[in-house]
Write a structure and sequence with these properties.
Keywords: Hydrolase. It is an enzyme of class 3 (hydrolase). This is Protein phosphatase PrpC. It holds the Pfam family PP2C_2. By secondary structure, the protein is an alpha+beta fold. It has one domain: Phosphatase 2c, domain 1 (4-Layer Sandwich), CATH 3.60.40. Helices cover about 40% and strands about 25% of the residues. The protein contains 10 helices and 10 strands. A 5-stranded antiparallel β-sheet has the order 1-10-9-6-7. Helix 2 packs antiparallel against helix 4. It is globular and about 55 Å long. The model has no long low-confidence stretch (mean pLDDT about 90).
Amino acid sequence: MTLSTALHQASQTDPGRVRDHNEDCIEARPEIGLYVLADGMGGYNAGEVASGMATSLISDGLQETWRPRDVDRLGREEAKALSEKLIVEQVARANSAIFTTSQNNPECAGMGTTLVVCLFYDNFLTVAHIGDSRLYRLRGEVMEQVTRDHSLLQEQLDSGLITAEEAKLSQNKNLVTRALGIDPTVETEVHVYETQPEDTYVLCSDGLSDMVEDEEIRLTLITLKTNPTLTVQQLVQAANDNGGRDNISAMLIRVAEPFGVARGWLARLKSIFR
């Protein structure tokens, strides 16, 4: 079972109905189970520079350093630890490159980007995020927000200063407390989760999550679960129908089958015929 057959995926990015250009960027490397989404900000159209650098540098870096054939020789817990380590290293590398570019180019001053990175391997998922772009998971009919926003609004919610209903009307929705490329270093939040067959994962920018209620996202995922492409198209369309005030990006990955890795004598036997 290869990742490309076990994971069904679709993605779409759209400028929305208000912005004249798209500062979101997405990249998928399905052969290694990697999906990256970034929502850029700052500078004169430089948000798209930051998000483009983030997605390409992290994807290229992990393509080079995360080698499934070598990782297969590790124990499962070792593989989890390595996935976290390599993602944090590549995010730090991208952060440094974006920060340096913003310092050396006046037109890019202050640019940065949010980030979500998902790496699937051996029936687990390693997730790293910075900012308020999100990862949702639908399991059965229950949808959860896997990531927790790094935003002023989330801090106000956590401290009890505002209610969830008040948060929907807040003017602070787009004030992130953490972003890639703004400072010389950045703290990456990273976690590992076990996957299950028929799980559906959605990476998205706030252009989707701010414009479409979680319940509508959940119902769309359930109703169209056998058609990832149509699901993503419908989510983007819903955000545009509700105003499309920001760029909209969504990446959907559905676990069609288990994607466990053979170890021990079976792995050694397989390696002979590679």
